[in-house]
Write a structure and sequence with these properties.
Helices cover about 80% and strands about 0% of the residues. It is mostly helical and about 500 residues long. Helix 4 packs across helix 5 (about 115-150). The protein is globular and about 60 Å long. The N and C termini lie far apart (about 50 Å).
Amino acid sequence: MVSTKHALLLASLLVLILNNTDARKISSSGISTRQRHHLLHRSKSNVLSSDLYKLRGGAVDVDSSTTASTHYQRTITALHSTSFLIVLSTSMVAFTPLPSITRHLTTSVSLSSSASPQEHAVKILSLISAASAAVELFLSPLLGALLDRFGRKRPSVLLHSLITLSNLGVVLHPSVHTICISRIINVLCSGFLIITTQSIIGDLFSGTQKDQMGTVLGRQAALISSGFLFGSLLGGRLTEYGERTAYGCASIFSAFAALNAALAMSDTLDLTTSSVSMTDETKSLNWTSLKQALLEAPLSSVQLLFHYGSQMRILALLLLLQSAPMYMGDVFQVFAKEEWGLKPNDFGKIVALFGVLGIFSNTTLSLIVKQLGLRTFSLFAIVSSLLFPMTAIFTNNYRHVLIAGSIGLYAGAQKVGTTTAITSLANERGIPQGQLQGEKASMLALLKIICPVIYSALYLKGKEWSMNSFDGAEENKFALQMIMGKFGKKLPFVLNCTLGVIAFIVTLQSM
């Protein structure tokens, strides 16, 4: 009588043979690349359903655990730890460029210059931010195509290594140029790593695993929040000892992240696509297609809105509505300084507070999603996000605003449901994850360019209206001008409330 172990080995061999046969049929059928990816993904997902997907919550006998399931466990663990390390590294030097560049410019800017060294530094960093967003807009779809062609692991290791080298450049030769280069590479590679990370998570979950995907995304967000909190606090202290110390420590953590990705992470594209799709012909670099992808990059930023049907369009619009308030950061810092009288140290404490709240909310996310479901939780998180801007509109006491923000601590997790729904819908329709995440990042890069301009214009125009209405208060006969006199400076928060209400209605009707 054949033992259970031998029977399982024979069954696994039979499944492998059948899967390779199906893959050869798909490869020789003459169908399009996207259709082929769809069929291969479905075929491989069915093969691994008992080994890979059931491991997330189903009962799997220990003796029947396969190499794929082991790779799944290792990859998820490596992904979480690598993300924590790289966010810890980048956040250590996130606030270092401004004082460092200012200090270097102090000795190089001529005394006859009308602008101070700090103003020059602010202009340089603003230009870097705008340029980085433009580059991300063009290169994100190209990266998505490369991820689908070459896998997730090698680009991930390369991006982590680039961050390490850029930080080492500042350690070896600190100057305005090396600091700016490091800033550009840190910003760009961090954005590209988000594409890679979400592609990996999308690979490991089928369309029916929405709640579990939300749980993994929540755990990922909690670790990112932790890395940002500890990195910011540690970076602020290290900067006091000089930029070389801060960048040196950052390079050590980014090097650990690169090693962890290289040694502990499996390429998830191998887990979800057949061996036929990973042949040398498929992996060869097609310069014509890459050139076409680069030329079509601006159009790729709106692909999710127009190319994949009405359901994907609604989810993409919802993601834009939920993401826009994230890009008012500079305006909020100016508002906090001018209207609340907060010093940089006090503002740093606010950032630390919301970092702690983000860790707590994302850590408990899985428990709440399990109780409420993903749709109900998304509605709850959107309502939570309205508390902060509404309180900022109706009060001038920043402590009241902080209390409201603390009560609405799940505001930062409102995009989990939308991101999960987009990824699941892409899996159902056979859209390659690298392509999806690249197009999504390109779409969000538009917000990084547009939103700062909109929020700045609203604040400055509202401030102007507010001052004008106070100057002519006795002669003012229009109620609108009186309202602007009280709430003009708070127009950015009014916009955030409006976006939140629209997002709630869209989520209620579509998810």
